[in-house]
User: What shape does this take?
Amino acid sequence: MPLLAGPPAPEKMPDFVRFLGRFHPVLLHLPIGVFALILIQELGLIFGKNSSQLRQTSMFPMFFGAASGIIAVLAGFLLYQGEDYGESAVISRHLWGGIIFACVAVLTFIVKSWTISRAGNPAFYRTLLFGSVGVMGFASHDGATITHGEGYLTQYAPPPVRKVLGLEEKKPEKPKKSEATAEVQVVYTDIVAPILERRCVECHKEGKSKGKLRMDTFEMLVKGGKEGPAFEAGNSAKSNIIIRPELPEDDEEHMPPEGKKDIEDHELAVLKWWIDSGADPKKTVAEIEMPAPIKEAIAKLLPAAAAGAAKAEAPAPEKKPAGPDAVLQASVIALSKEFPGAISFEAQGTTDLTFTAVSLRGNFDDGGFKKLEKFLPLLVSLDLSATKVTDQSVAMLGTAPKLRMIRLAETQITDAALDSLIKLTALESINLYGTKVTDAGISKLSALPNLKRLYLWQTAVTPEAIKALKEKLPSCEIIAGTGA
Assistant: This one.
């Protein structure tokens, strides 16, 4: 199949092919489980007494194992053709290992049938069976490596097993750095790399480099992938690892992909700061100028580093605000039953709320928004993208003074909604992608002193109006696509 189909071309694959391919992780467990059963049966045949009975009971599992092996390999091949895994020896080895296993499994079934019908010596069949199980084991190991990273199956293997496999003796983990050394912690190694590890490396590592981009080492970030380096030192606005996460969530190019947890705002702020500061892989926290917002962002990721950068004693701990009372918790739970997964507390121990209607989309309108009225004073984040809300709902936000982020992408709101938004002085991010706003409306947003990010894709707003707004809000990043 690989020789006839040629190298993968995901951009040319129809969605139906990619849909079928993604069943591979489900289907592959069938032949693995079945062949494990057959192996147990044959060991019982070798060491047991009722050999004739065991030989008969293993026929159907052998047929089912071979058939499911073929189906799993076909799905795997479609997955390989429909996804961009980059150039990887592990991917290639896993592909051919699966094909060889399916072929040997079919041959094993044929030989087993012949052995039973002829009452022949089962030695050849058993040799093929053990061989097919061995190939299956190697292919499974490569599959785990692709999904979870190098050494996933052997990372915690005991010393005797590591010795048999020829692996190095596992060294004891080094103790974590103490707070006393916080100011000499390296920004890339101790702060940036862990962010990328959590959000990006799963799909951009050795053995699974989507877009031929690896993000597991600094050198690989610089090398880049199909679209060039992952970042442009000194210019975060033109860096791929910043542009992709800031795209609308329903954009096909948005990263991380659907189903993966999005990068947090404070993590994105730290990445931008590091890139704009030159993206040096060796500089420490104390060697790079750190604005107050970045100190706060890093404090969420690495409190010790923030303390070292400040070079000052930590202030007396503030009294934690009271968490939600029983009445508020009960109200949130009640609304969650009507709008599952939509409303939640921003963090444990706080009364601040977030609401997202992403899963509701066209089923959420002004009537549904009316049910949020008593929660508005506590809202800090609101996502109404692709819903049926109108200016009527936005007008109700006058009672939401804590609101920092709002997404109104692909809704029917107009300039009238912006008259309501300019009263929310805490707003930091507004997404108006695909709405009916115009130059007259966005000019009013200059009244928002804390606005840091504004999305204006596919609107009637002109480049001239955007330029005028940038002059009034120089610290606000306006993302308007190629048309502005």
Summary: The chain is about 45% helix and 5% strand. The chain has three domains: 2-164, 181-310, 326-483.
